[in-house]
Amino acid sequence: MAKIHRITPHARAKASKSKHGRYMLRLFTSGTTPRSTTALRNLREICETDLEGNYDLEVVDIYQEPGRATESDIIAAPTLIKEEPLPTKRMVGDLSDRPKVLLGLAIAGKSK
Predict the structure, then answer these.
(1) Alpha-carbon distance 24 to 38, whole Å?
(2) What are the sequence ranges of the domains in the chain?
(3) Are 76 and 17 in contact (CB under 8 A)?
(4) Which residue has the higher pLDDT, 12 or 46?
């Protein structure tokens, strides 16, 4: 049985609601490849720094859960899907271009 990792923020108690609501993020990875590992590290840093605990992150390994990748029309990994707040957005790659990721998540103005 495949594992799905749900990562919750460390500062949940201090989480404040943004004007957009809580961020629901899903990162599709391809095992522990360098790009997937880098994408997860970059995304966690962005979430902890810029979303200040106002997020839920689910990490899905497409090697272990290929059906989930098919359901979500994933054709490359790593792929990040921002499901909430709407509109839904997708980003592919290691998420190292921080300004682009912040813009894609609609939190560009919060960057520190």
Answers:
(1) 20
(2) 21-105
(3) no
(4) 46
